[in-house]
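Appendix C reproduces, verbatim, an entry submitted by the partner laboratory led by Prof. M.T., so that reviewers can inspect both the input and the predicted structure.
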Amino acid sequence: MMSTTPCRVLIVDDSAVVRQILTEILSRDPGIEVVGSAADPLLARDKIKRLNPDVMTLDVEMPRMDGLAFLENVMRLRPMPVVMISSLTERGADTTLQALALGAVDFVSKPKLDVASGLQAYADEIIAKVKAAAKARVRPLARPSAPRTGLDTTLPAPPALRFRTTDRLIAIGASAGGTEALRVVLEQMPADAPAIVLTQHIPAGFSRAFAERLDRHSAMAVREATDGEAILPGHAYLPPGGQHMRVIRDGARWRCRIDDGPAVNRHKPAVDVLFRPVAQSAGGNAVGAILTGMGDDGARGLLEMSQTGAPTLVQDEATSVVWGMPGAAMRLGAAKETVPLERIAQRLLDLAAAIA
C-alpha cells in the first residue's frame, strides 16, 4: 500500500458508543480512512465484501456470532490485518490470546469503566497500532498448535543440551505478533535449555494468562517472574504486565528484579530495560534476540549486548508480522544475523552452546 493512500478501516463493535469513539479517534489521522462500522459479525461480513477494508478492528465479545469464531472465518476465507478490542479481565485476556493465535495482529485494551474517556486516553496507541497493522504480513489461518504433551511431531526435536549452571542466558524481546512468535520459539526448546528472560509488550491484565499459555506449549517451565526470583536453567521468565524486568547478578547466579519505574520507549515493560542489564551482568555469556514488533524498543539494548560480546540475532522480515523492532536493530548494527522464525530456537541453542 502506497504511503499516500489512507489505510481503510472497518470498525466492528456491538457498542454504538465505542464505534463512534473509535471512528472519531481514527479519523483524526490523515493516514486513516474509516470506511464503515458494524454492530455484529454478520453485518461485518457483508461490509467486508462491499467495502474491502485494509484493517478491521474487532470486539472480542460480540452478539449473534462469537468473536473468535468470526475471526477464524475471516482469517481462513479472507485473511486481513485485525486489531482486537478487548477488556482487561481474566476472561478477556485468555480470549485475546486465543485471537492472537488465530492471526490477529495486535490488540487494544478497552477499559471496564468510563469507556469513552478510557479509549480517548489511548488514542495515540490505537492510531499507531491500526497503521502498523495495515503494513503487517497476514497469512491464511493454519491449524493452531496443540498444547505440548511430548515431542512436537511436526518439527525436528531440538537436541537435549545439558546445562547445569546459569552461565548461559538467552534474552528475547518482542511486540506486535510476538505472542505467537514466542510460542513458536519456546515450544522448540528442550526442558534443560539455558535460562530465558523475555519481554513482550503486554498490559498487566494479560501477563499471567500469557505466561500460562506459553507454559502449556513448552517443555520449559514458563512463569511470570517475581522480584528477587533466582533465574534457573530450564525456566523462562516474563515480567508482570505493566512492570519492567531487569537481570541482576547475585554471587554466582542471576536474579529477576521487577521494576515499577516509568515507561521507556513508551513501553512498560520495555525490551531495552531488560537487555541493558543483561549486557552489563552477563556480557558475552548471554545471547540476545529481537522478534517481530512495532517501533524500535530493544535495538539500543541489543547493540549494547553485541558490544559486550554477546551473539545477537533478529527475526527475518519475511516471517515477522511487523518488522519494526527487528529492522531497527539491523539498521543500528545491533544484530549479527537474521533468522526465520521456525529456526530461531535452534539457532539460539547453537549460539548458547558455542559460548566458551
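The CA atoms of residues 4 and 120 lie 26 Å apart. Additional entries are available on request from the coordinating office.
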